[in-house]
Amino acid sequence: MSDVSMWLPGCCYLLAAVPGRPHASAPWKRAMLATWAGLMFSIVSLVSLDGGIFHLAADLPGHCMLVLISFLAVVITRYSHSYLGGEPGQRRFLSALMTTFGFSAAVVIAPRLDLLLLAWVLSSVSLNALLLYFPDRRAAKMAAHKKFLVSRTAEALLLIGIGVLYRSYGTLNIAALNHAVSMEPRHGLAVLVFSLCLAVAVILKSAQLPLHGWLIQVMEAPTPVSALLHAGIVNLGGVLLIRLHPFLDAEASTQFLLTASGVITLVIAGVVMLTRVSIKVRLAWSTCAQMGFLLAECGTGLYGLALLHLLGHSLYKSYLFLSSGSVVQAYGEDVSVGEVRMLRRARVWPRVASLLILGGAFWGVHSVVANTAYDVEPIALAVLAVGVAPLLAVGLEEEGLLGSAVVRIGCLLVLYEALHRYFSSVVSSDDNRHWMVPALFGFAMVLLYVLQIVVRTCDARRMWRVRIWAFHGFYLDEIFTRFVLALWPIRVNGGSPAAHSTTTDEGEFA
Question: To 10 degrees, the CA torsion angle through 331, 278, 212, 471?
Answer without folding.
Answer: -110
